[in-house]
Protein 1
Amino acid sequence: MFNQDSLDKHRALDNRMFQLLSEDGKPLEKGWKPSLSNEEIVQAYKDLLFERTADLMAVSYQRQGRMFTYPPNLGQEAIHIATGMVIKEEDWLVPAFRELGAWLAKGVSLREIFLYFKGNEEGSHFTQANRMLPVSVPIASQLVHAAGLGYAMNYNSEKAAVFAFVGDGGTSEGDFHEALNFAAVWNVPVIFVVQNNQFAISVPMSMQTKSVNIAVKGLAYNVPSVLVDGNDLFAMHEVLSFARAQAMEGKGPFLIEARTFRMGAHTTSDDPTRYRTREEEEHWAAKDPLKRLKSFIEANNLFDLSQEDELVAEYKKQIDSSFEAAEQHPEYKLDDVFAYMYSDMPDELKRQKNIYENYLNQSGGAK
Amino acid sequence: MKVMNMVNAINDALDLMLTADPGVVVYGEDVGVEGGVFRVTEGLQLKHGVQRVFDSPLAESGIAGTALGMAVAGMKPVIEMQFDGFVYPAMNQILSHIARFRNRTRGKFSAPLVIRIPYGGGINALEHHSESPEAYFGHTPGLKVVIPSTPYDAKGLLIAAIEDPDPVIYLEPKRIYRAIKQEVPEEKYSIPLGKAKVLNSGEQLTLIAYGAMIREAQKAIAMAKQNGFSVELIDLRSIWPIDRDTVRESVRKTGRVLIVTEAPQSYGPAAELMAVINEEAFLNLEAPPTRLTGFDTVIPLPLGEKHYLITPQRIYHEIDKLIRY
Ligand SMILES: Cc1ncc(C[n+]2csc(CCOP(=O)(O)OP(=O)(O)O)c2C)c(N)n1
C-alpha cells in the first residue's frame, strides 16, 4: 500500500511518478499484489466499462443533435473510478466538469447528467447524491469552495474529506493557488485531484507552466503532493486512500497530479487535429486505462471476458433508457427561470414575470 | 471590397493593425495555434509570428494585468476573453487598474489596450457562455465600451478601439458572428467611438438597440412597416460614451422611444438611456420611454433560453403599444 515511505520516495521535485502496473497490465514490481479484492477489481473494471460506454454514447447523442456541448471523459476514467471507490457517503465531491465516473459513484443519475448537458439546470439537482457540488464551468473557481467545505468539516468536527477536481490548465488560475494556500494554512481535509490530461483545449502543458510537473506546485504551499499515473487504477486507488486516511488523521490537504490524456476532443465542438499529432495520440492510446486493467484481469483470470459484449449491450440499454428519461423530462417552464433566484421571489421579479405572461396571453402563447 | 462576416471582419482588422503597428500584440486562451474557439484569430499567428500572436496560460486576471503592463510600456495589447462569463476573473484588473491608471497617475501612465469579449446568448451554450455583462463596464469610469452589429462596423470600430488612447472593452455579439455577410472595404478605415448610427429613419418611434438585438429589431421594424408604422432605428454602437446627440435628435422628432437589450433590466444600459432621454428630450415625449430587456435572472441554459431571449414579435408588440399610446 502507498504509505509515507512511498510518498518520500516519489518526490515530486524528482519528477518521480507513482505507478503500479505497466502499460500492458503487468505489475512493475515482482510479487506485487493488489490491495483490492478480486471482486473489487472486477467491479472497478465494470464501472470503468460503464463510464466509457456512457461517455461514448453521450458523444453520439450530441452528434445526433439530441444534446448540446458535452466534454468527453475518454481516457481519464481510471481517476474517476478510483475516486468513486475511495470517496465516502459523508465526503464532499467538488467537480470541475470531466469526472463522469466519480459523479455516478456519488449517486448522480445518468438521467440528470444528460439533462444537464441537454441544457436544463434541473440536471444539477443531483437528487440522489449527497454532498456533491454542481459542475463548475469557470475553471478552478470551485477549488476555493472546497477549502471552505474543508473548514466547515473541521469546524463541525465531522470526519469527512473533500475531493476537489481541476484540470492542468486550471492550475494557472489564481484560484488554484489561493485554494492550496487556504487549505494548508487552515489545515483542512481537502484532496485536490489535478487531472493532467496534457491539454487545456489547444494549449499544451509546456505553454501552461515551466514547473517540472504540477505536483511541485503543492509543495510550495507545504501540501503533500505526488505525481501518479492517472491511467493506473491501482496506483490511483492507493494514493487516494492514503490521502483520505491522512486527512482523517487531521494531517490536512493533499494534492494528486493524475497524469493522463484526454483521448477525445475537449468538447463536442472541438477538433483536436488542429493542435495535436497522431503520434501523440497513439503514444497515449497504448496507456489506455481500460486496456491496462483488462490485461491485468485477463492475466489473472479474474473475470470471464467473453461476457463483456453481453455486459456492454446491457449497459447500452440502461444508458439509452436514462437518455430517454432525460428527453422525457417535463417542458422547461417560464417559472423555472425565475423560481430559484431568491428564496422568496421578490416583487420586482414577480412584476417582470407578470408582464411577460400578459404578453404571452395576448399573443396566444407565441414568444 | 470583399464579402465578410463578422468573424472575417474582426480578423481582418487585427491583421491590418498587426501589420500597421509593431506595438500591437494579440493574446489570450487558445488564440494562437487554434485561432480562437470562434476562429476569430485564425491564421494570425502563422502570419505575424508567436511573439505577436500567442496563447497565454489559462488565467484571465493574468491576461488583463499583463496587458496593462505592456500598455504602460508603450505596447498595444489586444487581448481576448474566451467567453463573456470568463471576464469575471479579470474584473479586478479591469476595474481596479486598467480603468484607473491614467487618473491615478495624473496622466503620466495610461492603459491603451483592447479587451475583446464574445458575448450574449442564443447559441445553446453551457453556463457562463451566454452572458451580457456590458453594464458592468459601462458603469466603470475610465472604460469605453463598444459593441458592433455588422461586419463593416466590427472592422472600423475595432481599428478605432486599437488606435484609441484609452482602454476599450470590445464586445462581440457571438450569436451573429457568422449570420450577416456584407461587403467590407479591404483597406484600413475607422469608425469613431461614441457615435451611434441611424440604420433606419422613421417618424413615429425611436428604437434603440445594439449588438445582436439590431437584427431582431430590424425584423420587428419590417413587421411594423407592413402595418404602416414608421420606426427609426438607432444602433448605439458604443454604450459608453452614449451618443446623446443622435438620441436627442431622434427622440425629439418621434416623441416615442423603445430600448431593447438582452442584458438584465436593473441598472442596465436601457436604464441609462432612459435617463439620457429624460435629460435631453423630456418635453418632447408623447409616451413613457419603454424598455424591453432581459429579466433580472441568470440567463437560462439552452432549454430555457426560449423564455428569456427577446424575439421580433415581442419587440413589435411594444412598438405597436407605444405608437397607439
Ligand atoms: C475561467 C474560465 N476561463 C476559460 C474557460 C474556457 N475553458 C473551458 S475548458 C478550458 C480548458 C480547461 O483546461 P484544463 O483545466 O486543463 O481542463 P480539461 O478541459 O483539459 O479537462 C477553457 C479555457 C472557462 N471555462 N473558465
Protein 2
Amino acid sequence: MSGHAAIEVRQASKTYLSKQDQVDALTAVSFRVMPREFVTLVGTSGCGKSTVLSMIAGLIFPTEGEVRLFHEPVRGPSRRIGYMLQQDCLLDWRTVEQNIALGLEIQGQKSDEMMKHARYLLNELGLGHTLYQYPSQLSGGMRQRVALVRTLAVQPDVLLLDEPFSALDYQNKLHLEMLVTRVLKQQGMPALLVTHDLEEALAVSDRILVMGGQPGTIRRTMEIPNDLRKANPLDARAHPLFRPLFQELWGEIDQ
Amino acid sequence: MKKKHHKPHRSQLHANYVRRIRIQEFWVVFTRIALLVLFIAGWEYSADAGWIDPFLFSSPSRITELFIQMAGSGNLFHDILVTTVETILGFALGTLGGISLATLIWASPFLSRVLDPYLVVLNSMPKVALGPLFIVAIGAGYGSVLAMGVAITIIITTLVIHTSFQSVDRNYLRLARSFGASRGQLFRKIIFPASIPDMIAALKVNVGLSWVGVIVGEFLVSKDGLGHLIIYGFQVFNLNLVLMSLLIVAVCATVMYKIVYWLEKRLLKYRMAE
Ligand SMILES: Nc1ncnc2c1ncn2[C@@H]1O[C@H](COP(=O)(O)OP(=O)(O)OP(=O)(O)O)[C@@H](O)[C@H]1O
Ligand SMILES: [Mg+2]
C-alpha cells in the first residue's frame, strides 16, 4: 500500500537553528497522501504546518526522518510539485500572462503549447480577459486565481496549498474552494492543504490531520465519510453530517 | 429608458469633475509662471533702481546680454558640451558601476559581509575631498573631472542597490525556489526586476550628485566647462558670468532630470496602471 503513496513523510523532525537558539518545530511526523486524495492539515498557529509543506516542497530538509515523493526521497524542489503560498506573490511588474508563465520559464519548458494550456486554465477560472492586465488592476480573489493558474501551468502531479484562501472574503473563498476541488477531481491530482478554517477543512478534504503540540506532531487523523467527500464544498456545508463532525474537530483542536 | 437617462447624467458629472481639475491645474501653472516673471522683473528693477549693486548681483538684462555675446563666439557651447558630456558619462558610469558592484557583491554573500564596513566608511567620506588624489593619479584633465563624477555616485548607488537586492520579499524567493530556480534565475527573474524602482530612484539622486562632482572637478582642474566659467568669473569678479553659468547648469540639470523622469514613467508602466 505504501508503495503507491504520492507523498510519504516518515518520522520527520525539524529543528530550526540560529545563532541565538534552536526551535524544535516538528517531532516524529508521519503520514501519507495517496493518489487522488485530498488531505488537510489543521492545528494551532505555530505547530509546524508550513514547515511540513516546505519540507515536502524541498525548500528545507528534515533534521531527522525522511520525506518521499512518488517513492523518491526529496532532495530539493521537484517539478512534480505545485506549491501555492498564502500570499499570491504575483510579480507586479509582469502582466497576468507573464505571471502565469513564470514557472514555465524557470523550468525551461515554456512553449506555445504549454502557454496555450496556461491560457486555457486562466479561461477556465474566468480570467481570460485579464491576460494583458497588471496584478495591481485585479481584486484579491482574482489575484489568488491567477496564482493558482501559475501553479497549475507547470502541470504538477501534486498540489501543496498553504492557506491559499485565508485572505479572501467568504464568497471568494467558497468560489475558489469549488474551483480547486473541481480542477483536482478532473485531473485526479492529490493535494495537501493547510488551513486555519475548520469548515473549509471539512468541506474539501478526504482526510484531516490534526496537528498540535510544541514541537508539533500529528495528534489525530479524521477520515471524512464518503457522502461528505462526494459533495462539493458548498453542499458539504449543508450536509447533516457536517455539524457533528465540525464539533468533533473543534474539540480536537481547542485543547 | 432609465439607462439612457443614466448615462448622460454620469458623463455630465465626470465632465464637471474634469473641468474642476483643469481649472486647478491652470492656476497652479499660472502662479508658477507669474512667480518667475515677478522674480525676474523685480530683480531687473532693483538693479536699475540701485537697490542692489548690479556689480555684485548682476541683472537679467546683463546676463542675457552676456549670453548673446558669448553664444555668438561659440565658446559657450563648447563649455556647455564639455560639462554636459562629463556629467552624463559620470552619471552613467557611476550608476551602472554601482549596480554592477551591487550585483557582484550579491553574487557572493561572503564578499558582501567582508566588504560591508568598507562600503560604509567610503560612503561617509566626502568624495570631493578625493579630488587632489585624482589629479595626482590621473592628471589635471577631463579624466579627473569624470572620476569625481563617478566617485560621488558609485558608492552610494552600490549601497542602495545592494540593500534593495536584499530586501526583496522573501516569499517571492520561496515561490521561485519552489519552481526549482537557480541562484542566477532568482536574480534575473525576481531580484533584479523587483529592484528597478529603487534603481530609478538612484538615477534621480545621481543626476544631482554627478553635477556636483563634475562642477567641483572643474573648479579644481579644468580649463573649460561651466565649472571653469564659474570659478573664472569669480576670480575676475565677473558676477554676470557666474550667474549665467549657474542658470545654464540649472537648465541642463533640469533637462537631465526630466529625461530620467520620462524613463521612470516608461519603465514603471505597471505602477501607473489604474
Ligand atoms: N525559518 C525559521 N527559523 C526559525 N524558526 C522557525 C522558522 N520557520 C518557522 N519557525 C518556527 O517553527 C515553528 C513552526 O512554524 P510554522 O511556520 O511551520 O508553523 P505553522 O503551523 O505554519 O503556523 P501558522 O499557522 O501560524 O502559519 C514556529 O514556532 C516558528 O516560530
Ligand atoms: Mg504557516
Protein 3
Amino acid sequence: MALESISVIKLRDLLLVTVPPDPDDETISALQERVLQAMALYEARGLVLDISTVQTLDSFFARTVAETVQMVGLMGGRTVLAGMCASVAVTATQLGLTVGNALTALDVDRALDLLNAAPSGARCV
Amino acid sequence: MNEPHQGEFCITSENDIVMARKVVRDAATALGFGITDVTRIVTAASELTRNIYHYAKSGVMHWRSLNQDARVGLELTFEDSGPGIVDLEKAMEMGFSTGKGLGMGLPGVKRLMDELVIESTVGKGTTVVVRKWLKK
Ligand SMILES: Nc1ncnc2c1ncn2[C@@H]1O[C@H](COP(=O)(O)OP(=O)(O)OP(=O)(O)O)[C@@H](O)[C@H]1O
Ligand SMILES: [Mg+2]
C-alpha cells in the first residue's frame, strides 16, 4: 500500500518523484532505494523531489532526503526539492533540519527549469 | 470548546508514528491552532513517538486540551517503560545520539513547543510532557 504511493517518472534525462503527504519511515526508505535504482537505470542527470503535499518533515525524513541528495550527487546528478509549503519550512528550520546540498524551487515547473538551465558540471559549455 | 478533550494512543509499531501524527493533527486543528503551529506540534509528536519506538519499543501517548487562566493549549505526554536516559542534559544537546540519529529530536522538540518536561529513570522508563498554547 505504502510503496505504491511513490511514483518515479522519467522526463527526458530527469526523474520526477512525488512524495506522498504523510509517508511512514518504510516508505521514505523505499523511496530512497527506488530513486537510486532509477538514477542508475536511466542514467538521469537530475532529480526533482516534489514535496508539495508533504505535511510533516521530521528528522528521519530530512536525514533520508539529505542522504539521497548526497548519493545522487555521487552518481553525477543534482536534486531539487520542489514545493515545500511555508509551515513545513518554518518547522523544519526551527527543528534544525537541513536537506544537504539540495537545490530548492517553488514548484515542479521551476525545478525543471532550474535543472535544465544548470546542467551538471561535465556538460558545461 | 469548554469541555476538556483528551485521548490516548498506544505506540507499538513503526506505523504508529504516522497514526500518532494523525491523532495529534486532528486534536490540534480542533483546538483552533493555525497551520504552522499544527505542523510544529505534529512534527514534535513525530519525533517523540519515534524515540519511543526506537529506544523503548513501546509506550503510550496521552493528549488533552488545557484551559488555564483563559488560555487554551494542548498537552501531549509520551510515556514508556524503556531503558531510560542516562544523561538527560546530554540528551537535550543538539547532535547527541546513542543511535544512528542526528540527535536533533529532543532539542528540536524543545524549540517547536512552548514547554517541555522530561523525567527519566534508568531501567524504569521515560516520560516527556510537551505543551503548546494558542496565541490569541
Ligand atoms: N524514550 C526514550 N527512551 C530512552 N532513551 C531515549 C528516549 N528518547 C531519547 N532517548 C535518548 O536520547 C538521545 C537523544 O534523542 P534525540 O531524539 O534528541 O536524538 P536521536 O533520536 O538520537 O536522533 P534524531 O531524533 O535526530 O533522529 C537518543 O539518542 C537516546 O539515547
Ligand atoms: Mg529522536
Protein 4
Amino acid sequence: MKTTDQTDHKRRDFLKTGVAASAVTLAPGIVMHTAEAAPRDKAVDSSVRWGMLIDSSKCASGCDSCVQACNDENGLEAYSMPEGADPEKWDQQRPKWIRSVTLKDNLSGRISNLPLMCQHCENPPCADVCPTGASFRRADGVVMVDRHICIGCRYCMMACPYKARSFIHENVDIKPELAPRGKGCVESCNFCVHRLDDGQTTTACQDACPENAIIFGDLNDPNSEVSKALAEYPSVQIRADLRLNTGVRYSGI
Amino acid sequence: MKKIFYKEWDIASQTYWMILAVLAVISAIAGFAVLHMEHNGHWVTGMSNQIVWGTPHVFAVFLIVAASGALNVASIASVFNKKAYKPLAPLSALLAVALLIGGLLILVLDLGRPERLIVAMTTYNFKSIFAWNIILYNGFIAIVAFYLWTILDRKMNRFYKAAGVAAFLWRLILTTGTGSIFGFLVARQGYDAAIMAPWFIIMSFGFGLAIYMLVLSDFFRLSGRPLGDSVMFRLKNLLGVFVAASLLFALMYHLTNLYGTENHAYEAFILRDGGVYTAAFWIGQILIGGLLPLAIVFHPSLGKSRAWIYAAAIMVIIGGLATIYVIIIGGQAFPMTMFPGKTVIASGFYDGINGLASTYSPSLAEALLGIGGIAVALLITAIGVRMLKILPMSLADEVADPHSAS
Ligand code: SF4
Ligand code: SF4
C-alpha cells in the first residue's frame, strides 16, 4: 500500500501548511479536495455528498487492484476459511464489499469491466427496510451499518438491488481497528468512511486503481473533480429505473 | 344444537407426558442445531450472500401465515356468527397463537445476533415493514389471547364479539404485512407484485385450516371424544374452497408476470428451467398442494372418507411449504437483472453469470430448526388444551350440527 501512504503524507503536509485552496493536484489525474472533509469531532452534514464516477472504459480486464485494496483497507481478509468448509460455498459466504464484473453486450458482443460496490443510494432501500435502523444513510451520503444495533436479519440484503452487502458468516479472529465487525452482522462498502472522518478525501479503491478509472469526491461541489467529470462525460446509474439516485455513477459501460 | 360442554384434554397422563416428551426432544434437538449455527456462524448452513434467507425462513413464514389462517375458524364463528363453528373456536384461537410463536421463534433464532432481540423490540425504524410486523405479531398474540379469555371466562363473555372482530381485522393486517415483506422488495423480480399481499391472505386460509383439521382430529381421537362427520365435512369443503382460491391467485400472479415482458425470464425460470424450483412449483405447489387435495375433498367417495380428508390436509401443508420455498428461495436464486441487454460473463460475486441461478442446498441444522418450530407450536397447543377448557366434550353430529334432528 505504498501509494496510499505517500498520498497520506503529502496530504498531512498539505494540511500543515494550512492552505485553504479547495483542491490540490497530487499527481497527474489525482486531484484531492480538502475543504469539505469534516473533522471527527464535528457532526457530518449534508453540505457534502460523497460520490464516485467509475469509467468502465478504463477498467482493464483481469485487474483486481481495487478489490485487493478494499480487502486490505477494510480487513476483509481477516477471515480464513473455517475448517471443514466447502471452498466453493465459502467463496459465496465470505464478505466482499467490491467485486469486479465483466459484461458482454448481447447485441454487439462488446466486453466491458467494472467494479461494483454499494452504490450509496440517496434513497437506500436497505435503510428503508431495516427494522432497527442499523442501516442508515449519513448526511454526507455515506450508507453504512451500525454494527451495534444490527440484528443480522438480512432483510437489507434482500432489498439491495445491487447485492452490495455481505453477511458475516463466521467468527472474526482479528478485529481490524478501522472497520469494527463481527459475526452475525451485515456490512458493505462505506466509502472508506474512517478516512473521510480523518479528513482524507480518497478511497482505497481509487488510490489503488492503476488506470485512474475511479474518481471520488463531493458531488455537491461543482468544482470537484467528480462533479466536473460528471458534467463532461455521459454517465449512468445502474438500475436508474429504481430512482435511487445513486452516489456511484458509471461511464463507458 | 345441543349445549356444548368444554373440558380439559383428558387423555391418560402417560400418553400426555409421552407426547410432551417427544415434542420436547424434537425442540431440544432444534435447540442444539441453533447452538451449532450460532456458535460457528452461518457458514455451516446452506445460506450465503446470495441466498440470504434459507430453510428456516420457509418454515417461519409458513407458520406465521398459517397462524393467521388458523384463526379463521374462530372468526367464522364470532364475526360471521356461524353457530356451527362456535365449538371449534377456542382451539382455533389457541392454535393461532401457538403457530405464531413457533414461527417467530424460528425467525429469531436464525438471526445473526439473536441475543439482540431486545434491540429489535425497542429500536424501531418505522419506515420498515419488518418493524411494523414485529408490532403486528406481538399485537396478534395479545389480542388473540384476550379473545381466548373472552371465550373461556364467562365473566368476560360480553367482550367476546368485539374481541373476535378485533382479532379478525388484526389477522388480515398481519398477513398483509407478512406478504408485504416480499412485496416491498422492488429490486427482486419475483416479489415486486401488488398481488403478493392478498395472495398471502388466501394461502393463509388454506394452510391454517389444514393444520387445524389435523390437530382437531388427532386430539379428539387421542382422547376418545366423538368427532362427527358433519364437522369434518364442513371443514373439508371450506378447505377445498381455499385451495381452489390459492390456485387461482397463483395463476393470476404468474399470468400478470407473463404479461409484462420484463418478467418473462423469471417466469421461464420458475415454470420451466428452474430445476428444483420448477419441480417444487409443479409437483409441490400445484399438484400436491393444489390439484390433488382439491380432487380428494370434492370427490364423491374419497371426499367422504375421513382418512382421505386427513391426507388432503397433509398435502395442503406439504404443498404450502413447497409454495413458500419457491417464493423465498426461488425468488433469491433467480439472478437480479442489473444490466439489461448485457450478459454477466464474469463476476467476483456470482451475479448470475450467463444468467445462471444461485445454488442453495439446505443444511440439516436449518431443517431441524424449522421442524423444531413446529414442535414448539404443537407443544404449546398440547399444554394449552390440557390446562384450559378448549376442546368440546363431543363434536358428534347430533351435538355439533345445528340442523340435526335433536
Ligand atoms: S447499493 Fe444497496 S447497500 Fe448500498 S445504499 Fe443502495 S441499497 Fe443500500
Ligand atoms: S441485517 Fe442488520 S442492517 Fe440489515 S436490515 Fe437487518 S438489522 Fe438492518
